Every structure is written in structure tokens, then in C-alpha cells.
């Protein structure tokens, strides 16, 4: 069973640029959610994808967008980067929206630095 | 929406002592409360969880208690070991709805050998 993998692990961008982060969900999982973890803070929900459709969104502006592909992998896109976007971006997968297990399986994250 | 508060933000204990981390939540509808451990540079991993129909759950040296009336839940680690040193996050969720997880701000636990 393959775990959640994310790429790239680290990247540096400048203000105003755009970034795409990628996530491969754990084998058998069809739901992917993205979280932003600022330094010293807990993960903050960005959005969730279920069967290729956005299913829930946190308090993030529209310049944060995403996709989920037929193989359930996912992308997070951030346009017009701001300094405050510097954070660890975590992807988490699970099977289904409703189930007996609530466990989120996290990837190791993509560390984004905006200069 | 839900608001989860976590205390303390940092905690140092001597090896072998117990550690307690506390969280409160605001939405009485939340019914699932997991705890995640995040070691430095690693991914968060679930260590224990509890559902609202249970008041306490134990797994070896770790336990979680839930007080639905007061809307707070706690993580208890007994006989702490250096490998318990990590950041611990509590979270709240409304299970079976696909709703988001709301995380606390984390507690950095240091176990001193």
C-alpha cells in the first residue's frame, strides 16, 4: 500500500508568482483535502476534493484553487503569491466522505517560501 | 464554525512523568476528536481518537478523555519517553458528513531524559 506523496518538498517563489503543488493519494483513497500549516500553528483547511469535485472549502481566497484527477491525485494552485502564503502545505487522503474511520492520512508536505 | 483551542502551547516533562494536553471546542455538533502527533519534519500521524458516544479511550500509554457537557477533551500520556517528544494536535470533526477537520494550534512536548 502506497502512502500519500507530495511534490515538491521545498520550493521558493517571489511575490506575485504562481505555484502548483501536487499530491498522490494513498492507494484506494478517493478523497483529498489540503491544509495550510503556518509555522507554529495547526493545519488550516483549504479545501477538499471528492471524486474530482470540490466538496468543502475553508476561509481561503479564490486565488487558492485545486483539481482532482481521475486517479484521485490532486493539485493545489496558488496565484498571485503573497508573503503570508509561506507555509507547509499538507495533503491528506481518506476513503469516501462518510465512513466509520475518520483518520486522515497526511503526506509529508510541501514547504513553500515566498520572498 | 467550529473553534478548537489547545493548551499548553509548550510542555516539558521529565522522562517517566505524565503529560496532559487539553483542548476545548465550540460546536456541540462535533462528534469525533482525533489527536495527531507530528515529529520534526514529519507528517502528522493519528495516535488516538474518540467519538462522542464514549467518555474515555485508552491505548497502552496514551488515553483520551471527553467531556461533552463542558466541550473539552484531553490527551494523557503516561510514563513518557524521549520518543514522545513531538508536536501534538487535537482536532474536532463532524464524522460522516465529509466536513472539514478543525485543528488546535498544537502543543510542543519535550521529554527530558
Summarize the structure.
The complex is a heterodimer of chains A (about 120) and B (about 110). Chain A is mostly beta strands and about 120 residues long.
- Biggest interchain interface, per-side counts: A-B, 26 and 27 residues
The helix/strand class of chain B is mainly beta
Question: What does the overall shape of chain B look like?
Answer: globular
Low-pLDDT stretches of chain A are none
First CA to last CA of chain B: what distance?
Answer: 41 Å
Rg of chain A, Cα atoms, Å? 13 Å
Helix proportion of chain B: under 10%
As an assembly, this protein is: heterodimer
- Judged by helices, strands and strand pairing, the structural class of chain A is mainly beta
Number of strands of chain A: 11
- The end-to-end distance of chain A, rounded to whole angstroms, is 38 Å
Order of helices and strands of chain B: EEEEEEEEEEE
- What's the main sheet of chain B like? 6 strands, mixed
Mean pLDDT of chain A: 92
User: In total, how many beta strands of chain B?
Assistant: 11
- Could you tell me the strand content of chain B as a percent range? over 45%
Strand content of chain A: over 45%
